[in-house]
Specification:
Blueprint: E1 21-23, E2 31-35, E3 39-43, H1 49-61, E4 75-77, E5 80-86, H2 98-115, H3 128-138, H4 141-149, E6 158-160, E7 169-172, E8 175-179, E9 186-188, H5 190-201, H6 205-215, H7 221-241, H8 247-253
Antiparallel strand pairs: 1-2, 2-3, 3-5, 4-5, 6-9, 7-8
Helix pairs in contact: 2-5, 2-6, 3-4, 3-7, 5-7, 7-8
Length: 254
């Protein structure tokens, strides 16, 4: 982790009035800096400018939700697209209790309500056809076996976050203060989006029930299991292809 694109204040537009910047150690895929302690600069290492603009527009449309609010238009820093956000208070959790899970479930309900009629021009990253291609690239028979066993028709419900793991939500004094990192937001299945949350936040059926109840889902735990299995397999394959630690997720799948 840490920044990949190293910059100084001189690399930024003078109109921003930046006098100091501090590199964040929290960035995984992208480079993140704190500007004068009040703003956050994110340099997108792999995303195209068009995809970053989609994120900016989405966050602007959902302005009533606790999100990292973009400040201004998409910038070009060292030839890469970048956004500046208002800095959010709070910290991410190492583990979540029922109270925090109920808050994130309520957030997901409201987020999906606001995005149900929206269409993103971003690639639909979580489709079964894309996962099938990822599995072929992995050349791992166990992934193919698990994929074949999942009978799950995915819907296009609206725009989803797709990556709401624990480290992408901040809490301050026990309250959800901000949800961040919408880089993978695209159209997809709302229950898959909820299953990604379940995968990271819930380590018991009690917590999964709290998530489903706070979201307002009418699906049973048994019916939801297929979504959880698909989300687990997707991120297992994704981590394998990107050289990450996929073994823990694989153990949950078999």
């Amino acid at each position: 982790m840490g920044v990949k694109t190293v910059i100084t204040p001189k690399d930024l537009p003078a109109s921003l009035g930046v006098t100091s910047l501090e590199a964040s150690i929290d960035g995984v895929m992208d480079s993140v800096y704190f500007l004068d302690g009040e703003r956050v600069l994110k340099i997108f290492e792999t995303a195209e400018a068009e995809a970053v603009e989609e994120e900016r527009k989405l966050l602007a449309l959902c302005e009533t939700l606790p999100l990292a609010k973009p400040m201004g238009e998409v910038l070009s820093i060292c030839g890469k697209p970048a956004l500046i956000y208002r800095r959010c208070g709070g910290k991410s959790l190492n583990s979540a209790g029922v109270a925090e899970i109920r808050q994130i479930g309520a957030f997901m309900r409201e987020f999906h309500t606001q995005t149900a009629t929206l269409q993103s021009s971003n690639e639909r990253l979580f489709e079964k056809s894309r996962l099938a291609q990822m599995i072929r690239e992995s050349d791992m028979p166990i992934f193919e076996t698990l994929f074949t066993a999942i009978d799950l028709p995915l819907r296009n419900d609206g725009i989803i976050h797709g990556d709401l793991f624990l480290d992408n939500a901040l809490f301050e004094e026990g309250r959800l203060s901000c949800v961040i990192d919408f880089a993978q937001a695209c159209n997809g299945d709302f229950l898959f989006d909820l299953a990604v949350v379940d995968l990271s936040w819930c380590d018991s059926s009690k917590k999964t029930k709290a998530l489903l109840e706070s979201y307002g889902a009418t699906i049973t735990l048994e019916e939801f299991r297929s979504y959880r299995e698909y989300a687990t397999l997707f991120y297992c394959v994704n981590r394998y292809l990107n050289g990450g630690n996929y073994h823990e997720l694989l153990e949950k799948s078999v």
